[in-house]
Design a protein that fits this description.
The complex is a heterodimer of chains A (114) and B (113). By secondary structure, chain A is mainly β. Chain A contains no helices and twelve strands. Chain A has strands at 3-5, 10-14, 19-21, 24-26, 32-38, 44-50, 56-58, 64-68, 73-78, 87-94, 102-104, 108-113. The chains are: A mainly beta (114), B mainly beta (113). Chain A binds chain B through residues 32, 34, 36, 41-46, 49, 51, 90, 92, 97-99, 101-107, and chain B through 4, 31, 33, 35, 42-45, 48, 50, 56, 59, 91, 93, 95-97, 99-107.
C-alpha cells in the first residue's frame, strides 16, 4: 500500500531564509506526487505536481520540488520564504493522475518569524 | 468557475443528531472525492465517485456514514447518528478524468458535542 511520510511536524524559519520540507513515499512503481498547501481555515491548494520527465518541478508561489527515485523522496523547497508562506503543507501520492484517491502525509506546519 | 462549493462551512451538533454535508463539484468534472481531516489521522479518503457511481467506499468508517451523488452537480455525505469522534473537517474534491489535479473545496468543519 502507498504511504507518505513527512518527518517534520512543525518548522520555523525566518523571513527571507530558505526552506526545505521533506517528503518520503512508499510505492512500488513511480507514483504521481503532489504538494498541497492549506492556509488556516481554507481548503487545499495545489503547489506543484510530478508525474514524469524532469525531476525538478516548478510550482506556484516560487516553490519547487525535486523527485529522487533512489531516495523515494519529493522534497519541497523555496529559496526565500515570505511571511505569507506560513501554512500547513501536505505531500500526497496517487496511483494515477487526478482521478485516483490521494494518500496524504500528516503535514508540516510552517511558521515564519521576522 | 466558482470552484468546489461545500456547505455548510461550519456545523455544530449534538451527539445522536443527523448531519448532512453537501458538495457541488466544478461543472463538468466527473470524479468526486470525500476526504476527512483529523488531528490524529490526518487527511483520509472516505469515498469517491465516477460519473455519479461510487467506486470505492472502503474509507467510510462505519454504517453511520453514507454518501450519495444523485446527479453530476451534487453530492451529500450523511452521518446518522453522529458521535463526538466524527468531529473533523470534511473536504470534497473534484476532477476530470483527463485532468491531473484534484480541486478541493473549503471544507466543512464539524463539531459533535
Amino acid at each position: 500500500a502507498q504511504s507518505v511520510t513527512q518527518p517534520d511536524i512543525h518548522i520555523t524559519v525566518s523571513e527571507g531564509a530558505s526552506l526545505e520540507l521533506r517528503c518520503n513515499y512508499s510505492y512500488g512503481a513511480t507514483p504521481y506526487l503532489f504538494w498541497y498547501v492549506q492556509s488556516p481555515g481554507q481548503g487545499l491548494q495545489l503547489l506543484l505536481k510530478y508525474f514524469s520527465g524532469d525531476t525538478l518541478v516548478q510550482g506556484i508561489k516560487g516553490f519547487e520540488a525535486e523527485f529522487k527515485r533512489s531516495q523515494s523522496s519529493f522534497n519541497l523547497r523555496k529559496p526565500s520564504v515570505h511571511w505569507s508562506d506560513a501554512a500547513e503543507y501536505f505531500c500526497a501520492v496517487g496511483l494515477n493522475s487526478g482521478n485516483t484517491p490521494l494518500v496524504f502525509g500528516k503535514g508540516t506546519r510552517l511558521s515564519v518569524i521576522a | 468557475d466558482a470552484g468546489v462549493i461545500q456547505s455548510p462551512r461550519h456545523e455544530v451538533t449534538e451527539m445522536g443528531q443527523e448531519v448532512t454535508l453537501r458538495c457541488k463539484p466544478i461543472s463538468g468534472h466527473d470524479y468526486l472525492f470525500w476526504y476527512r481531516q483529523t488531528m490524529m489521522r490526518g487527511l483520509e479518503l472516505l469515498i469517491y465517485f465516477n460519473n455519479n457511481v461510487p467506486i470505492d467506499d472502503s474509507g467510510m468508517p462505519e454504517d453511520r456514514f453514507s454518501a450519495k451523488m444523485p446527479n453530476a452537480s451534487f453530492s451529500t455525505l450523511k452521518i446518522q447518528p453522529s458521535e463526538p469522534r466524527d468531529s473533523a473537517v470534511y473536504f470534497c474534491a473534484s476532477t476530470l478524468d483527463r485532468e491531473e489535479t484534484q480541486y478541493f473545496g473549503p471544507g466543512t468543519r464539524l463539531l459533535v458535542l
